Amino acid sequence: MSVGGVGEFGLIDRVTARLSYGSTVLLGPGDDGAVVAAPDARVVASTDVLVEGRHFRRDWSSARDVGHRAAAANLADVAAMGATPTALLVALCVPPDLETAWAEELADGLGAEAAAVGASVVGGDMSASPTLTIAVTALGDLGGVAPVTRSGARAGDVLALAGRTGHAAAGLTVLSRGFRTPRLLVEAYRRPEVPYPAGPEAARRGATAMIDVSDGLLADLGHVAKASGVRIDVHRDAFEVPRQMRDAAQALGVDPYSWILAGGDDHALAATFPAGVALPDGWRAIGRVGDGAGVTVDGGRYDGPTGWDHFR
Amino acid sequence: MSVGGVGEFGLIDRVTARLSYGSTVLLGPGDDGAVVAAPDARVVASTDVLVEGRHFRRDWSSARDVGHRAAAANLADVAAMGATPTALLVALCVPPDLETAWAEELADGLGAEAAAVGASVVGGDMSASPTLTIAVTALGDLGGVAPVTRSGARAGDVLALAGRTGHAAAGLTVLSRGFRTPRLLVEAYRRPEVPYPAGPEAARRGATAMIDVSDGLLADLGHVAKASGVRIDVHRDAFEVPRQMRDAAQALGVDPYSWILAGGDDHALAATFPAGVALPDGWRAIGRVGDGAGVTVDGGRYDGPTGWDHFR
User: Fold this and answer.
1) A162 pLDDT higher than 90
2) What does the entry list as the binding residues for Mg(2+) 2 (chains A, B) (predicted)?
3) Which of B78, B139, B312 sits opposite A43 (nearest CB)?
4) Which of B158, B245, B276, B297 has the most CB atoms within 10 Å of its CB?
């Protein structure tokens, strides 16, 4: 059955019937707005949009995978502010000939990724469109800590990372060359493994700046360096290249560090901590903050690609 | 200059430079997430998406008009829960050849409509897409009142309306027949006049159910009737047909009540109040709630069109 066949309200009924609601949801879908708990009396909010052909392909990812990725991109932004995600809202634009099963499985993926952090899909909107588009807004609660922005890094701070980089970019390269393995990389692209609790934990431990690595490590650290007025140096030997990545890089003629340093979409969290602070669980040192501007690798300029601009 | 020429971050810089931030904004755009005040410790959230060719046309509405409409559709949903809007987040998908001025003026319209209710555009995302798409999420604060849902209407309640209906639908019909006047109707389509404060005021005065009229009065009251398990009767003589609407209807061979009863997009608020409650300023009685199911007009079935399904 196509989306056009069941109609807007029919599809909304089918999708909301598959969702479940956690303790943060005071009023779920079905009204003009949802009501979500905001115990901190401040709410963190972030929006990310995925466009078919640009951010995902239906032949590379299942609907469920796309749901996981769309949710992860947004939930990671909330975690990177030091907040715990509470809710997602989803605007879904679909071609009328799309099978309803695709939209239902997308909702399953969105709901499952949200549930893994205690958040729920609380509302949304649907429209027909020639271009399959998924815009997600995530909300989160700071639980009494100050939000961790991009502007607080100071010379002398330690640069630390939670989660992995380069895996999703390697998976995307593999898929774009027509392969379906290695599984480690392809699955990393399809469903990022985001270290969500590392965000609020870093905030509680005094992280001075934090960012979600979505455009590429060096590009995203560039935003922190600029906002904080510092230079950030990344230590290349802090990154282990897994065997599957090394093999794929060799087979495809790619420098694996271009994935690790410039590949996006794993949604690792990068943060700076005052020197001497014991890094929380899940965080490891990968560099240092100094005086100056920009991002360097082992003290020097990096000449590879550095990130992703969605208009170029 | 095209959007593709300035790039994603260039366009974000240009747009955010035009925005201003009210007292609800604790941290605005430029980080992974915004931080918005939620003094009530609950946040109301709603999402609506506008797709070019389906919800707007660039030859019928200026970018600024589209911004006003996109904001209004979302802010009205928040008001219809009884909440005061605090913030908007905007996911914007644009063809790379779009002029940056269009996106900038869209932001002006979004910001101006938000500012009129004390809310601000606090964040967003941008992507290239073949289809110009604007997904907006609105947040709001309940200020200590219970959210007014669709399910609380009771037999004996008075049905009341704040704002107008039929004007935007009439304006859309006029535009679709190639005319640019009457101004009253065309402007109503381009920039809805939403009675935002009437929402929280109705909540404080004990409204039992409330809804934003976006799909058409009878269709939207149908949602209330279904959720509340009641019949809602609309009194046709409660609606005055303005002269410009009557003239346009006659010229185009349309029943003006099809606009008033079934036309969407004015974003009036419809609410039910216990009999005997003095209606707050800006609200007028337009009908009655009774036992039964569905929506009637003057006690009988309405045979005209009743609303809008975005897939049909």
Assistant:
1) yes
2) 48, 77
3) B139
4) B245
User: By CB neighbour count within 10 A (0-12 exposed, 13-18 middle, 19+ buried), where does A212 fall?
Assistant: buried
Task: Quickly name the fold that domain A6-141 has.
Answer: 60s Ribosomal Protein L30; Chain: A; (3.30.1330)
Residue-by-residue DSSP string for B197-237: THHHHHHHTT-SEEEEESS-HHHHHHHHHHHHT-EEEE-GG
Q: In the prediction, which pLDDT does B307 show?
A: 57
What residue spans define the domains of chain A?
6-141, 158-297
Would you state the structure tokens that stand for residue A227, as one six-digit string? 């906002």
In terms of Cα–Cα distance, which of B171, B157, B299 is closest to B236? B299
Integer Cα distance of B59 and B53 in angstroms? 10
Q: What does chain A come to in residues?
A: 312
The helix/strand/coil state of A31 is coil
Q: What is the pLDDT of residues A253-301, one digit of tens each?
A: 999 999 999 998 899 999 999 999 999 999 999 999 999 999 999 999 9
Closest approach of chain A CAs to the CA of B141, in angstroms?
Answer: 10
**Which residues of chain B neighbour A131 with C-beta distances below 8 Å?**
93, 129-131, 133
ipTM above 0.90, yes or no: yes
CA dist A54 and A50 (Å) reads 7
Report the alpha-carbon distance of residue B213 to residue A32 in Å, rounded: 10
Q: List CB contacts (< 8 A) between B150 and chain A.
A: 30-32
Here the tokens at position B134 are 């604007």
The pLDDT assigned to B312 comes to 39
pLDDT in tens, B11-54: 888 999 899 999 999 999 999 999 999 999 999 999 999 999 99
Q: Cβ distance B219 to B299 under 8 Å?
A: no
Residue-by-residue DSSP string for B53-103: TTTB-TTTS-HHHHHHHHHHHHHHHHHTTT-EEEEEEEEEEE-TTSBHHHH
| Rounded Cα–Cα distance for residues B137 and A91 (Å) | 9
> Distance between CA atoms of B145 and B206, rounded to whole angstroms?
9
Contact A91 B135 (CB under 8 A): yes
Q: Tell me if B145 sits within 8 A of B210, measured CB to CB.
A: no
Q: Tell me the C-alpha to C-alpha distance, in Å, between residue B144 and each of B4, B203, B213, B288.
A: 46, 10, 24, 28
H-helix or E-strand spanning residue A14: helix A3-16
Question: Beta strand A133-141 with A84-94: parallel, antiparallel or unpaired?
Answer: antiparallel
Element (H, E) at A71: helix A63-80
CATH class of A158-297: alpha beta
**What's domain B3-141's architecture?**
2-Layer Sandwich (3.30)
A93: buried, middle or exposed (CB in 10 Å: 19+, 13-18, 0-12)? Answer: buried
The backbone torsions φ and ψ at residue A235, rounded to the nearest 5 degrees and listed phi first, read: -95, 115
